[in-house]
Amino acid sequence: MASKDKKAPGASVTREAQSEVRKNEIVQAFARSVRKRGFSKTSLTNIAIEAEMSPSHIRYYFEGKEAIVETYLETTCAQILDRIREIKTDDPERWFDEFTSFVIENSWITPARLSVQMEIFGSSVHDEKLKRIKVDYDREMRNILQSFFEDIGCAEELTPMIAAEIAQALEAGLKYNAVFQEKFDPVHARLIYTSGIRVLTGTLV
Question: What is the model's pTM?
Fold first, then answer.
C-alpha cells in the first residue's frame, strides 16, 4: 500500500520554483522602494508594502534587508556579465559596438535605476559581502575589456591591462554622472565612451 506521505513527482521542484519567483518579487520590490525613497530610508516594511506581503512573510525568504541587498547586487552583476559574455568575440570592432550598445545605450539604463546601484556600491565600502560582490564584478569586467584590447591593440605606452582599467573607469564615470543629470542622453554618452576608447586603442573603432 502506498504511503499517504509520499510526495507527488516534481512537487519539491514546483515549490522551489515558486520560492524563486517570490524571492525575485521581493528583490524587485526592494529596487522600487530604493528608487522612491533612497537606500538608507528603505526599510523591510517599505519593501513589504511594495511586494504586497507582510514583513514576516518576507523574512520567510530572507533574513532581512541586508540579505535582499546582497541578492539584488549579486543577481544584477551576474546578469550584466552573462549578457556581455553572449557577445561574439570573433570580430573585435563588432564586439565593441555591441558591448557599448549594451553597457551605455541599453534602454534599461536610467538615472533612477543607476541610483540604486550607486547607493548600494557606496554602502559596500563598509559591508564585506557587498564589497566582495563588487570587487569580483569589477575584476571580471576588467578581464573582459583586457581581452578586447589584447585583440585590437593599444596606443603606444599602454598595456591591455591599463587600457582596460581606464575603459572601465570611463564607463563607471559616465553612469555616475548620469545619476545627477536631469536627462540622461545615451547617444551623447556613447560618443564620449567611443571617443575615449579610440584614444586607448590608437585606432578607429
Answer: 0.82
